[in-house]
Amino acid sequence: MYSEKKVEPMKSLSTPSQPEIISLRNDTKASRQRIKQQNRKAALVFWCFAGPLILGLTVFFYIPIIWAVVLSFANARATLTPTGFVGFQNYIDMFKDSAFTSSLGTFLLFALFIVPTTFAASLGMALLVNSVKKAQGFFRSVFFLPTACSYVLASAVWRMGIFSGTDSGLANTVLHLFHLNSFDWITTPTPPWFWLVLVTVRLWLQVGIYMIIFVAGLQEIPRELYEASYVDGAKKGWETFRAITFPLLRNASISVLLLNIIAAFQAFDEFYNIMFGGNLSLARPPLVYIYQVAMFNQDFGHGSAGALILTIIIIAFTLLQGRFLGFGKKD
Amino acid sequence: MATLVSQSMRPRPHKPKLTTGKVVSAILRYGTLIIMALFFLLPFYLMVRNGLATEMDISSPQWSFFPGSLHFENITELFSDPDVPFVDGMINSTLVAVLQTTGQILVCMLAGYGLARIPYRWSNTIFYSVLLTLMIPFAVIFVPVYVIVSSFQWVNTLQGLVVPGIFSGFTTFLFRQFFLSFPHELEEAGRVDGLGYWGIFWRIVVPNSGGIISALSVITFIAAWNAFLWPLAVGQDSSAYTIQVVISAFMNSQNVNMHELFLSTAIAILPLVVIFFILQRFIVEGYKQSGLKG
Amino acid sequence: MSQNQSSSNSFTRRRFLQYSGGLALSGSLLAACAGTGAGGGGTANGNSNLPNLTQWYHQYGEKGTEQAVRSYAKNYTKANVTVKWVAGVGNAYGNSVNTALLGSSAPDIFEQSALSVDQVKQGLLAPLDDIFAAHKDDFLPASVKPFTVNGHVYAIKMLNDPTFIYYRKSMFQKANITKIPTTIDELIDAAKKVSAANNVKSIYIGPDAGVDALHQIAIWASGPQQDLLSADNKVIFNTDRVANMYLKIHELNATGNVLPDATDFWWSINPFLNGSVAMQWCGLWAMPQVVTALKDDFGIFPLPGLDAQSDPATVDGGWAEMVYAKGKNVAAAKAYVESLWIDNATVQKDWNVAYGFHIPPRVSTSAQTDKLKTGPAADAVNILNKYGHSATPYWNAAMETYLEDAVSKILKGGGTASNAKTLLDQAAEKCNTELQKEL
């Protein structure tokens, strides 16, 4: 019954996925009526389910966020009590601060690079892992293992074990095998090899978890769909991937993209730990700069303003991808 | 062939045949996977290799991929170092991670189901406000959160380490996405049997969500185990150090103790590796279940 | 918090422990939970008539330091002092202190490496003039200046850490270098010679071309009256002499003999000890290791000056004790600080030289310390006394970022004197904006 629909990839994004079709069929008019009558009861039930979370988020997120918003319009040095309101001055100062704006620029580029790369790598690995019959669990485990390592520790391994600029680093030991000289991976501004270090550690740490999300999505695609399309003459490979696999991975793709974008803009630990001291100015993420302003310098007014600018950028990017992919839609 | 068909319970349009093309493609796929797996395992090897080396060897120009000798006495040195509460750190981390995972899965699963299934006019607004918490960099609300937690007198306590980490927009989001595609007819069957939302949730939804629960438990446990910034601020005294905080001691400003750093890193991820390999089968089973249901 | 809730908490914890026997080992954390929170646990004497004090130390790297500070606290009879050994790499400890001072469980006594003028203005720090004024002359001016705001002193130095260049005597001899470099040109020359003669890299100044290690000290070494901020709070580091000094360090980097990166940062002496380099920028703290490894085959000298008109320079770094002004027992806290770092020379000597190597900030104490009377250790004391500098408290983390960014560009990129001066001018302008917010 699905095989009649030869869906175009773009169109498929707005086509309800399979479980939603079922839900449309089953939501009869009568049951909708009943739901309307029980609205008040539903609200109570809803709060039974979501209440604990919302309470916790209120204490540990919403109040601090509102606090930060207030501080962003105020003078607050070495105190969390505003000592005089300054309007938008903190925001203006941050936009005038070349260290902040250049780090925002660098990280727009970083996000444009790392998000598609991580997405493609994790999807590719999921397809590859899912395509083999033997030792599937083993490979899945191996690719997921780096998730067990914290950013701080992975940074230490990358900085001190793999990409150190001396003869003792793994990367340079490999270069010696090819009779090349030791290379200074992290500290030279040109050519910017430090990006290779930063990108590989991020991929190593993150790809596994996104791959698992994709594998989960892949395993939920009913096999009948493929079989029906083979009957219709579709070939294994790119054709079925385009017509069936990718469209039905919509939910997984949305999750992976969203988490990826947020993670890219919130980059912190590996930069902070690998690009130490005078190297940090080569690639300083906005969050690290905000952290320096708010934590080292105790300037919570400017720190909060910078943080909110960053938050607005993250939200803007999320909404943008939502426009294209219809993220978060219920039906 | 006959056994194969009867096992899979489904008629197949094509009988699987071994052709040259298939063999080549299988070799290519396994080859790629094996090479990638080696790359992914390489850093783990380095942790062990450098962890069992002498301090001088790690940074010496004569460093080689396969060391001449392994110094297993480093392990006893690490565990018997009176300045490094390594065992206490492992226990504290276990305690924190177990409690945080249990709490987070419970709270966020309930909320995720509510957001996905219960018709309530504000539920979308609330969902977006939950998503918002994902986008706020934690390092930024860090100080206000600390002030709130310290006003509860929770500094240097277990609840201070555990409770703020329970409420996760991330886990809620993933649960909601999962419940959105949960088959309606199962819940409908429960409704016919006279169950309310609560009953449906506990009797039908939860038993059928083993895959996602174990998957998210693993992720949550890992995040709790690896948390650093918050335990550092709240677990101020050496009695309340988590393992990440203990390990950071090897990077202290005057003396980077590299062989202990590498070795303790390797040991600290060992419990996670074991947990993951055990739960791995379970997760796979869980996903297979949900695949059959669709 | 209601009694009900806390008792149910301890109930679940007990249950939890019953089901997992081995976890009982972690009793200290659990005890802290079951107790009153911030005040519980630790090594207090437990005499209820005495005031209770909480004291914070950062995690020192030297073996035995934690036990040492806990024993100082235990031996003090006029207060119950609870020591917290607070973790944190780099700036993390300072952040923990700053954050704690804003919350409800701030320590009464804590160490910091720098003073925040903003914290003084917020009334978070207690002035220590009453215990310090009489002994001020027994401290180096550079040990007092960073902690003085408007004539009041807010911290007392516990240890002094000068930094300098370690060199191998045998390698210098092999290269026929008989005189220790006294100008930066002589250092560059010596670097070339020692590297060629011994077939090693010449010097290690950190993985960032020396930005972190040298950006402040280079200013002081560039000539008399050269500083970050002036005494009357003006930004003054953007001079031609400073620009030239940074360019000289770039020249040193550009010789190709400098070790560009090591597994360790500059504060770990390993590259020097494992034979990668003939010289390394490091601190006094590393000297015990060097003595063990090289016996007397090493010497030290400070960062050479720019030319004949300038002196060499080092930093009077280290840690200083402060008192939280809003604590419950400020007077008792001050009394404890006085007993440790003013009165008790035995504690000061023990703390400074029994575990690692530092210089007791009281000049009279450091003069009596036997371990600092001979050899390179005595040289270190001399270098600190003669060439030790420090920044004013108005120099803050934001200015540090602006200066480091500019210096990073000069040290790595080089360029002409006017380019370097322009970069410094731009940084100085930003620093000035920041300075105005503090005044």
From TrEMBL, chain A:
Species this protein is from: Dictyobacter arantiisoli
One Pfam family here: BPD_transp_1
Stored CDD domains: TM_PBP2 (cd06261)
Keyword Membrane: yes
Family membership: Belongs to the binding-protein-dependent transport system permease family.
Protein name: Sugar ABC transporter permease
Transmembrane in keyword set: yes
Transmembrane region(s): 42-70, 104-129, 141-160, 193-216, 248-268, 300-320
Signal peptide feature range: none
Annotated GO CC locations: plasma membrane
Main location: membrane
UniProt keywords, alphabetically: Cell membrane, Membrane, Transmembrane, Transmembrane helix, Transport
Locations listed in the record: Cell membrane
Membrane topology field: Multi-pass membrane protein
Record Gene3D superfamilies: MetI-like (1.10.3720.10)
Coiled coil: none
Domain ABC transmembrane type-1: 104-321
GO biological process: transmembrane transport
Lineage summary: Bacteria, Bacillati, Chloroflexota, Ktedonobacteria, Ktedonobacterales
From TrEMBL, chain B:
Keyword DNA-binding set for record: no
The organism's place on the tree of life at top rank: Bacteria
Location(s), subcellular: Cell membrane
Example GO biological process: transmembrane transport
Residues annotated as domain ABC transmembrane type-1: 90-280
Main location, first listed in the record: membrane
Similarity comment: family membership: Belongs to the binding-protein-dependent transport system permease family.
Protein name: Sugar ABC transporter permease
TrEMBL record, chain C:
Keywords: Signal
PROSITE patterns linked: TAT
Matching InterPro entries: Bact_solute-bd_prot1 (IPR050490), TAT_signal (IPR006311)
Taxonomy, superkingdom: Bacteria
Signal peptide: 1-31
Signal recorded as keyword: yes
Name of this chain's protein: Sugar ABC transporter substrate-binding protein
Organism, scientific name: Dictyobacter arantiisoli
Higher taxonomy: Bacteria, Bacillati, Chloroflexota, Ktedonobacteria, Ktedonobacterales
